[in-house]
Amino acid sequence: MLKKLIITTLSQFENENFSGNFPLDYCLPVYHNVSNEHLPHLKHIINYKNEKEFEADLDCLSKHFQWVTFDEFKDYVKGNFKPKKKIALLTFDDGYREFYDVVIPILKRKGIYAMNFINPAFTDNKDLMFRCKVSLLKDKFQQIHYEDKFLLKLKYQDTKTINDLAMQFEVDFEDYLKEKRPYLSSDELYQIRNKGFGISSHGWNHPLYHDLPLSEQLENTFQGYSYMKENGFHYESFAFPFTDFGVEKVFFDTLFKNEDFFCTFGSAGVKTDSVAHNFQRIPMETGENARMILKKEISYFRFKKHLNKNHIQRK
Ligand SMILES: [Zn+2]
């Protein structure tokens, strides 16, 4: 791929003055999970890091940025918080259990705040996101040496196919949820909040937004919002599941009519957005360390500057 080649080539000339070279005043890394274990529901869809790799990322980011809490981030956006350095807000998506078991102990030791954007539909292991089901099937297929090319392409709308395959290959999602408890429980969510970390909304059940009509995009978002409000979590923000690519201006206009909403988050890397309070985050699970990811993001941003392609214009 040409894009990949350009980024790899340019990043080789990038120095490590990240705080100086980073093109925005804020850095928003996004992770899904951290684990030393083989997690069959994630292994084939997310390149999650182990504890050592995650800690190395944090140490790299700590050198160049000042970590902030979500409240400080909001104050910074409002102009009420003047940081000494460029700031970084650590975020996680999907509400996996290891956030409590693995991530928080590391963050407490290092004194770093993070927030997790969760789907209420999966809290307490009531259900499994369709991509995780696909990952479980893929894991089973590998065990029995069954080749399959279309599995990872299945969509939310293919739920029936996914369930049929599970039946056929004797993969029991219910059992998996009960035994492995991949998601955080409501009790853990309250404990996380009480420890001073943030919980906010990732929509109700993780659909791909640009596949949905506007009314369903809004419904999914407001269902998540109501849950956050009822349970005392951060209802003023929302992070798009998968991507905000193709989400139109009218969605944001309608959302922000509700004055409870302060901001939304995408994960398109280092970019600005025509919706001023839609902030793009940097995906950290690319298979590379933070140092390399930052180098690539910085050099690619500089390259695209000449093409005016660092700004997302919504119609
Ligand atoms: Zn997600």
TrEMBL record:
Cellular compartments annotated: Secreted
InterPro entries tied to this protein: Glyco_hydro/deAcase_b/a-brl, NODB_dom, Polysacch_Deacetylase
Top-rank lineage group of the source organism: Bacteria
Domain NodB homology span(s) in chain numbering: 82-230
Keywords noted in UniProt: Signal
Subcellular location, principal: secreted
PANTHER family, A to Z: POLY-BETA-1,6-N-ACETYL-D-GLUCOSAMINE N-DEACETYLASE, PTHR34216
UniProt-recorded name of the protein: Polysaccharide deacetylase family protein
Organism: Chryseobacterium caseinilyticum
